[in-house]
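quick q for whoever's on today - can somebody do inverse folding on this one?? i tried earlier but teh output was garbage lol. tokens:
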């Protein structure tokens, strides 16, 4: 990639965070910020400088789910148009419609595929909705 995007990844599962850290190192992505929980998500995200250019949200989080975090972030001017992608280890076909209706810009299955992630990230950064789901 020619530019190094600023990425925010909100994930409570230690193994998934480890995979993202390894992926960021492998792909030379120095601007990956990882939040381990969803507490005060809007305050913490808006305090970041530089601003995240793409946000990946785990769906099954506490105290706020990915759907709740998405709604809160979309209400802020700073993130109203930022690509926000759901990350989940399991999603049923009917849930895809819920994710789309909620306003996610896509969904990626976990674990993250190291071979396809660079292209997936590039496509997300150019505004494409990505729905890589294994059902």
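ok took a stab at it. sequence:
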């Amino acid at each position: 990639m020619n530019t190094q995007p600023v990425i925010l990844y909100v994930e409570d599962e230690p193994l998934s965070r480890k995979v993202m850290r390894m992926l960021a190192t492998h792909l030379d992505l120095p601007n990956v910020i990882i939040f381990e929980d969803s507490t005060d998500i809007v305050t913490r995200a808006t305090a970041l400088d530089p601003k995240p250019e793409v946000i990946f949200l785990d769906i099954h989080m506490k105290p706020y789910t990915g759907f709740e975090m998405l709604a809160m972030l979309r209400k802020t001017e700073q993130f109203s148009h930022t690509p926000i992608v759901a990350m989940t280890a399991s999603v049923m076909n009917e849930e895809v419609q819920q994710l789309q209706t909620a306003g996610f810009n896509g969904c990626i299955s976990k674990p993250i595929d190291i071979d396809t992630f660079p292209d997936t990230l590039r496509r997300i950064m150019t505004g494409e909705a990505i729905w890589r789901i294994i059902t």
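fwiw The mean pLDDT is 91. also Helices lie at 14-26, 41-46, 66-74, 93-102, 117-125. so keep that in mind when u check it
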